[in-house]
Predict the structure.
Amino acid sequence: MDGRNFILKGDICYSKTRTSLATAEQSFLVCAEGKSAGVFSQVSQIPLPYRAFPYIDHTGKLIIPGLVDLHIHAPQFAFRSLGMDLELLDWLETRAFPEEAKYQDTGYALRAYTALVKDLQQGPNTRICLFGTVHVPATLLLMELLENSGLVCMAGKVNMDRNSPDTLREQDAACSVAATREWLERCGTYTRCKPILTPRFIPSCTDELLRGLSEIQQQYNLPLQSHLSENLKEIAWVQALCPQSSCYGDAYTRFNLFGGPVPTIMAHCVYSGNEEIALMQRQGVHVAHCPQSNMNLSSGIAPVRRYLEAGLSVGLGSDVAGGAHTSMFRAMTDAIGVSKLRRCTGTGAEAPLTLEEVFYLGTQGGGSFFGQVGSFEAGYEFDALVMEDPHPVPPFPLSLRERLERIVGCSDERDILEKYVQGILLPR
Ligand code: GUN
Ligand code: FE
């Protein structure tokens, strides 16, 4: 029998929609060939073909979907929490770029990326989209470590041919394009860690480079990740660099690198206005909301509820090292926190986000970039966490929703008992 056929029993929580959280106590979650076949409250309700599957009893434990980080910088993990008194552009110059330059040395990359991947294996995320650096060998190494971790990831060799130090910047557009092709030729055998095109952001990429990446995108049919409207000084810089574009998103659109047939994640979107929102909506661009980073780099507070109400696909990102924490539980907590600050400081009038909404963002919302991921509705890929209630457990009864609230707010990796990705139990 396929090892990916089994039943978990426990207290099960998952999003059905943005506002609807399903809670099923003492219930049965069926995994059939690596996909959820649904949640059933009685054995007698489990469809016959599945009823004989091996059965794992997690009575009293919570079972929730694996979490999805749509935006993290792998080479920044080593210096998280440093330089947090700086704003974005100064932090990039003084902290991020000099550190990323070190990944020219594959020995350094191996040490640093091994530590990152270990952290990701221990944590609650099961799907992750990562930026590497400009370096082909270091990015291949990162992908190999991720491939062997059991997580399902997309990782990108970063492109940058302007406005960065000589130690990091690629020589010109042709060199960057050639290195990207070499990287793509060499990472073709991975099955769990797939390549994603990664122009850093408009200030780092010449028009010639973006044209070259668009050709590569079409040839290889690749998804794409980048940054958008994160910080006011950055936005003014993009406007100065691309005076002909009507908004930041339009600067990507001119090179066919803003959604449409290209599955695209844009991180931050703190200041996207009506035109940019309409463009993202029309082109199906996914937003990675990174609340901790937006606080740490004093970027601002993204109007997430506006995006949700406009029908945009939104997920969460750690943006390490803008954020210091890889766990999407932390991102959920911060997403609620900043949405309250947005309202009470008069930054925006939208109602704050709810537990249901941020749990959705960190599971099904972000998961949609990977397909049918982030829920236990039948047909979804089977990514699951079996969790202990964080200790000490309060001396009063808790509803299942309240237990989930505590997991989101105060669990840590010690509370993760099991982690499944596509129906495979990862070693812990
Ligand atoms: N914009 C361009 N590069 C970066 C980066 O490394 N981090 C963040 N937060 N924003 C960026
Ligand atoms: Fe980022």
In short: Residues 67-370 form a domain with the TIM Barrel fold (CATH 3.20.20.140).
